[in-house]
Amino acid sequence: MPLDGNGGYTVRHYTLDFDWKAPRTPFDARTTISATATHALSRFNLDFAGNTLRTVTVDGAPATAVRDGDELVITPDQPIPHGRTFTVQVAYTADPTQQRQRSDAIQTYGWVPTPDGTVLCLQPNGAKMVFPANDHPSLRAPVTFRITTPPGLSAVANGRLVERLGQPGGRVRWTYDSENAIAAQLLQVAIGKFTFVDSTGPRGLPVRDVVPGGLVGGTESYRALTAEHLAWLEQRLGPYPFRRYGVLVGDTDLPVALETQSLSVVPRANLLGDKVYAERDLVHELAHQWTGNSVALRRWSDLWLSEGHARFYERLYSDTHGGDSFEAAMRAAYQQHDQWRHDDGAPAEPGEQTLFKRMRYDGSALVLYALREKVGEKTFDKIERTWVTKYRGRAAGTRDFITLASAVAGQDLTPFLTPWLHGQRTPPMPGHPDWQVDPVED
Questions:
Q1: Residues whose CB falls within 8 Å of the CB of residue 35, separated by 6 or more in sequence, listed in order
Q2: In this structure, what is the dihedral angle of CA atoms 6, 31, 241, 361, given to the nearest 10 degrees?
Q3: Quick one: how far is CA 189 from the chain centroid?
Q4: Which of 62, 175, 199, 329 stands 20 to 30 A from 55 (CA)?
């Protein structure tokens, strides 16, 4: 996705103002961006798709704005000098029906309607359908959300509820502060008839679930496991990296859950069925808060580090909580690994259309399993804790991981990890000479 993200400036802060009306109904929206020029700018781009553009200003002065595909090309009234902080305001009519399709696990992304509102599923590059952004997984900024809802509806977004203020006609304006910088793909705004369910996690961590009214009772037993999941992951990865957490129950037919930062979206069906599969989803999305959210991706080809880690810990947890054997799951993945390499690219070699295929999940978890078999469980656990500690709040990629793992292990792991991550054929599994890879079928 080479056209996503833009150079020449660094976003310091987003403010999103949404005047929500009703599902599938256009509404007034405004995005205010504070940014610093990293080059002298006579013009600059934002990622922005669809929606009806009304006005654009730079530092309060009208600016020229031209649509070029999914890019909004802005020419300010006066050039912006290098190092100058500037403010862009884009007013538009938002279209909450915008969606796009993928052929991998994501399937539908963008605005996802619910019976009385919406949730957002923006991964990988759907933020531009919601607001003008610098949309790249390595680029993050704090966000203030100001969402006005009709009477009887609630709004939720990433982070902390700052204010709930009545407006004329019984409408309510909800203000949220993301508290931490956030990548555009991990942003969440949900609107509906919600019940907010408060609890606490380890060390008093605030946990707030957001649940459609009719689903509170049916999802309670699985949602109540969050504190246990947090404690289990903290034993392996260290302290939870954000100030709060919660599960947003999606009243939708979404095929997958999503790790929106500090507020994971889990479809209702996932929380109304089998306990083993519900816990796998819950642990997977929670693990992402460390790997993929706190430690962001340097580029999309590093997605194996995010999805592979989440699947690794999901499978490891499930092994002792009623699910399949972890080793059996890894052996099954090993058997299919050459086929996945053929169909979807090696773990760190995805194509745009194969980004969220099986290789980035089970296939990438297998790379971490191979590393653990190579260096031993104790060293592997130290690599993991060092990884999420050193790069907390930063973006990191495949080379960073190999360098760090080598330093912690006291040996150069480049010759070992390179064929696992980039090769056309699956290497032998350390400690398991009897494991075999199935032949590739075209």
A1: 9, 10, 11, 12, 85, 86, 87, 88
A2: -60
A3: 13
A4: 175
Q: Within 13 Å, how many C-alpha atoms sit on residue 113's CB side?
A: 13
Q: Note the CATH number of domain 1-96+119-185.
A: 2.60.40.1730
Catalytic residue among 279, 285, 314, 384: 285
Annotation: CATH topology of 296-422:
Neutral Protease; domain 2 (1.10.390)
Cβ contact 245:262 at 8 Å: yes
**Residues forming the annotated binding site?**
284, 288, 307
Which residues is 18 bridged to in the sheet?
29, 147
Edge-to-edge order in the sheet of strand 64-68: 44-47, 71-75, 64-68
Mean pLDDT of the chain: 97
Residues listed for the chain: 442
* Catalytic annotation present for 391: no
- Rounded (to 5) percent helix, strand, coil in the chain: 35, 30, 35
Write the pLDDT tens digit of every residue in 327-362. Answer: 999 999 999 999 999 999 999 999 999 999 999 999
- 163 catalytically annotated: no
pLDDT digits (tens, 9 = 90+) for 99-149: 999 999 999 999 999 999 999 999 999 999 999 999 999 999 999 999 999
User: Which phi and psi angles does 209 have, rounded to 5°?
Assistant: -90, 145
CA torsion angle 149 155 158 164 (round to 10):
80
Binding-site residue set for Zn(2+)? 284, 288, 307
SS3 405: helix
Specify the CATH number for 193-289; select among 3.30.450.40, 1.10.390.10, 1.10.260.40, 3.40.50.300. 1.10.390.10
- Domain map (residue ranges) of the chain: 1-96+119-185, 193-289, 296-422
Q: Which of 361, 369, 384, 391 is catalytic?
A: 361
